[in-house]
Design a protein that fits this description.
8 helices, single chain
Length: about 200
């Protein structure tokens, strides 16, 4: 699952320039994902850290981590203080980026087929863009169905959830977060995320 979501982080290398160029969520995903793959193909093994950083710089601003964190935390988000909400969003963002960026360069030969028609909801302010990702490996190719969920705000289309073969990133973490909050409260979840991120820091 981690490798699949690492691929998704790669596919969602969306630059602000690309977002400004299109008001269509399908065009945004299709055009800019190819740009991210082209960037990954520049990896020589000697410049890997630089390539990862460039991809992260493209990806991170295009996610609404506050909305994503709120959905992952669920009903307990409303009971958290503003300070707790800020800490949760910051730690969740750090966890996602560090967890998945370490493997993203392995997928520079992946291919993505973005389906032409987005499913629009909420009076056209939300969209689900479907795609099929081809992952090469061990002499075989594996096709994975991927859905990107976006909404349109003042800053254009932002991504707040991704599903792989029907498995929602937000739902996966909601189950984990809910269990921790039941045991140790919101502060316990913040501590858990901080501890994970501290362990993930480079030496």
């Amino acid at each position: 699952m981690k490798k699949l979501f690492a691929t998704l982080m790669v596919m969602l290398g969306l630059s602000s320039t690309a977002l400004a160029a299109s008001d269509n969520p399908v065009d945004v995903i299709s055009t800019t994902s190819q740009s991210a793959l082209e960037l990954l193909k520049k990896d020589t093994g000697k410049n890997t850290n630089q390539i990862r950083k460039q991809v992260e710089d493209l990806v991170v601003p295009q996610f609404d981590f506050i909305r994503m964190t709120a959905l992952a935390v669920g009903k307990d988000w409303r009971g958290a203080t503003p300070a707790q909400q800020t800490q949760l969003a910051e730690q969740f963002q750090t966890l996602l980026v560090r967890t998945y960026s370490s493997t993203m360069t392995r997928f520079k030969n992946a291919q993505i087929d973005v389906k032409p028609n987005a499913q629009l909801n909420n009076n056209g302010r939300e969209a689900v863009v479907k795609s099929e990702v081809t992952l090469p490996g061990n002499g075989e190719k594996k096709n994975v169905m991927v859905d990107y969920t976006l909404y349109k705000g003042n800053q254009g289309w932002k991504i707040y959830n991704v599903s792989v073969e029907g498995a929602s990133l937000v739902t996966i973490y909601r189950n984990q977060f809910g269990e921790e909050i039941r045991k140790n409260g919101v502060d316990g979840l913040i501590k858990l995320l901080k501890d994970k991120n501290e362990k993930g820091k480079p030496a």
